[in-house]
Design goal:
Structural class: alpha+beta
Number of strands: 10
Organism: Pseudomonas juntendi
Protein name: DUF1851 domain-containing protein
InterPro entries: GAD-rel, T6SS_Tdi1_C
Order of helices and strands: HEHHEEHEEEEHHHEEHE
Distance between the termini: 37 Å
Radius of gyration: 16 Å
Domain GAD-related: 4-107
Strand content: 15-25%
Shape: globular
Strand order of the largest sheet: 1-2-3-4-5-6-7-10
Domain T6SS immunity protein Tdi1 C-terminal: 126-194
Largest sheet: 8 strands, mixed
């Protein structure tokens, strides 16, 4: 196993619900996503990690989600973004074909972080390794609720996420009582339609 990915698993937790990546998906994203990411797909599939707190995903399944979040925003013309990973609470990690890991959306509160530090073409593989080195449970948790939510709701499947109901952008409260297990794709699209996507104050754009 690649040393970087081994460190990632040690940090985030063991894989679960592995989906094998078909050769057609590797071909589809060759030249669009870094070779190193495609290598990880081929070796490790698309999987959940750390009892479901973090997931690597099929970008094609999330094209509608990305379109729903980015349409009618300046982000739509900045780059061609592909969603390659997410947290169980709806943190969305997007990779730009020209800019690398330059966009993260926090769906629960409809905010994003954008980075103007574009990744050079010859540094894309290193950017993938750096991304997996920095992923940890705490960063993907929401106010430290994951362990309690896991006990309350059970382990999420590959197409499920934890969500606040009513949504925080509708005035809901971020409490364990309000957390539910929902279908990921449908809920992420719903959240994108409730409130306009806004940059964090520390975002570059």
């Amino acid at each position: 196993m690649d040393e970087i990915f081994s460190i990632f698993i040690e940090s985030i937790g063991k894989p679960m619900y592995r989906q094998e990546v078909p050769p057609s998906s590797i071909r589809r994203y060759t030249g669009k996503l870094p070779d190193k990411l495609l290598e990880y797909w081929a070796e490790h599939g698309w999987s959940g990690y750390g009892e479901g707190i973090f997931w690597t995903v099929n970008p094609q399944e999330y094209e509608g989600v990305v379109d729903s979040w980015l349409e009618d925003t300046p982000l739509a013309i900045r780059d061609n973004y592909h969603l390659i990973a997410r947290s169980v609470f709806g943190d969305l990690y997007l990779f730009g074909e020209k800019t690398g890991f330059s966009l993260k959306i926090t769906a629960a509160i409809s905010h994003y972080t954008g980075s103007l530090h574009a990744t050079a073409a010859n540094e894309m593989d290193r950017a993938v390794q750096n991304f997996f080195l920095t992923v940890d449970k705490e960063y993907n948790d929401f106010d430290g609720m994951f362990d309690s939510a896991l006990k309350k709701l059970g382990t999420p499947k590959h197409d499920e996420m934890f969500a606040f109901v009513p949504a925080l952008t509708l005035g809901g409260q971020a409490t364990l009582k309000n957390l539910e297990k929902v279908k990921t794709l449908e809920h992420l699209v719903l959240l994108s339609q409730i409130a306009e996507l806004q940059p964090y104050s520390f975002s570059d754009f």
